[in-house]
Automatic annotation (TrEMBL):
The chain crosses the membrane at residues 14-38, 246-266, 287-306, 318-339, 346-365, 400-422. Residues 16-414 form the ABC-2 type transporter transmembrane domain. It is found in: Membrane. It is a multi-pass membrane protein. This is YhgE/Pip domain-containing protein. InterPro entries: ABC2_TM, Phage_infect_YhgE_C, Phage_infect_YhgE_N, T7SS_ABC-Transporter. Its main location: membrane. Pfam families: ABC2_membrane_3. It comes from Levilactobacillus lanxiensis. Signal peptide: none annotated. Keywords: Membrane, Transmembrane, Transmembrane helix.
Length: 430
């Protein structure tokens, strides 16, 4: 028996395009998203970090300079030497993801490990408000670095202690020879003054050897001090939890999804009244839809505030920014929907899936592929997320971001107005 569905599709070839379009959506979603998170930990060398060396070298050790040089030369992490002021500024701006600060007393503390063991505390700053995932990844990288620093520090100190022990053995051998010579001199009947001077010299040598022996014994305390260097994390902008850090990403996605869903279900191309002026028809249709998306964004805001418990740094700005974002997204999606029918909505769906991967919401964009990094700054969702990060966690001005979003809304609203002008003679649907 022939399938009636296949017969129907045979007589309606336009449906094939729709079904084929739906067929590629899972492929796009899986492929685009996986491409953005394929191997982030293998790309840590693309994550910009800074090392600030404030160490004051001693006569025998310049630990800060040595560590800084090794970090900058390292191929596993991307470290740059910077001043403290510049590093903190770029960390807050999101151009850096970690700042390692070597304190002024580093060489002084480590140069006395054998005689006065004391743990050196080194602080590294992260910015969870900019990216909670980057903050966690930085902490993981610093744990590995801490192990490396401790191993190299203990190894160097043990080698120095062994050198002292060898020197001590040589001095004791020399002292033994001097004692033998002194006994021979005493037997030969040398003057008492010369014997006393020689005796004092030997006593001094034994005293110094005893001090050195004590230092060598103290070197054994290194085994008890398993971590002479301890790295401590400090977030310059802390977030209450992981959800707060991920909120800009999911809020931006939800607003874009809402705009696409509305345009698929509610056909903005159909007119429900006869207007002599195309601008009035446009204003009637778009005014209604603008009000609807503003209501949807408000419902989302109330949900994340009262149900989820999100507490932004600037609640009022966050709400107003959500309204501006949804108007920008809606104008973009609706413009494509009007001019290209359901194909336009399909293109916007694919565009949203692409933005999910290329906007850097899950992992820092520096850890993705070169193409994503190139287009990242120009995506509407990237702009929206940057603004929400400021109002939710970072603080600071969002004037520039607001102007960009307003520009998107105006440009694509003019595109919808152009559609109504082009179809000004269309009849209304009752």
């Amino acid at each position: 028996m022939k399938s009636q569905e296949w017969v129907y599709l045979k007589h309606h070839p336009a449906l094939w395009r729709i079904l084929l379009g739906i067929l590629v959506i899972p492929l796009f979603y899986a492929g685009l998203f996986l491409a953005s998170v394929w191997n982030p930990y293998g790309e840590l060398h693309h994550l910009p970090m800074a090392v600030v060396n404030q160490d004051r070298a001693t006569r025998t050790l310049d630990w800060g300079r040595t560590v800084s040089r090794e970090l900058v030369k390292s191929k596993s992490l991307q470290f740059h030497r910077m001043t403290a002021a510049k590093a903190q500024r770029e960390l807050k701006d999101g151009r850096l993801f970690l700042v390692l600060k070597i304190p002024a007393n580093a060489s002084q503390t480590l140069s006395h490990l054998a005689t006065a063991p004391k743990q050196l505390k080194v602080t590294y700053d992260t910015n969870a408000g900019q990216s909670t995932v980057a903050s966690k990844m930085g902490a993981t990288a610093m744990q590995k670095l801490q192990t490396t620093l401790n191993q190299s520090t203990i190894q160097a100190e043990l080698q120095a202690s062994q050198a002292v022990a060898r020197h001590l053995g040589q001095r004791l051998t020399l002292t033994a020879k001097q004692l033998g010579q002194l006994q021979q001199a005493s037997t030969a009947g040398l003057p008492a003054a010369q014997l006393a001077a020689a005796t004092q010299k030997i006593v001094n040598g034994l005293t110094q050897a005893g001090v050195q022996l004590s230092e060598v014994r103290r070197a054994d305390q290194l085994k008890q001090l398993a971590m002479p260097v301890k790295l401590t994390q400090h977030d310059v902008v802390a977030v209450a939890n992981n959800g707060t850090g991920m909120a800009p990403y999911f809020m931006a996605i939800s607003l874009f999804v809402g705009c696409i869903t509305l345009n698929i279900i509610y056909d903005a191309r159909k007119r429900h009244g006869n207007y002599r002026n195309f601008a009035v028809a446009w204003l009637d249709k778009m005014g209604f839809l603008w009000g609807f998306v503003v209501l949807a964004a408000s419902a989302m805001w109330l949900g994340v505030w009262y149900i989820i418990g999100l507490r932004p740094l600037e609640p009022g700005k966050t709400y107003l920014l959500c309204l501006l974002i949804v108007l920008a997204f809606f104008s973009l999606v609706t413009c494509f929907r009007l001019w290209f029918c359901l194909t336009g909505a399909w293109l916007m769906l694919l565009f949203m899936l692409f933005q999910i991967g290329a906007s850097g919401g899950t992992y820092p964009i520096e850890l993705t592929n070169p193409f994503y990094r190139a287009v990242h700054p120009y995506l509407p969702m990237t702009v929206a997320m940057a603004g929400l990060r400021h109002t939710i966690s970072l603080g600071g001005s969002i004037a520039g971001i607001s102007w960009i979003l307003a520009g998107i809304a105006v440009v694509f609203s003019l595109g919808t107005l152009g559609y109504f002008y082009w179809h000004r003679t269309d009849s209304a649907v009752l």
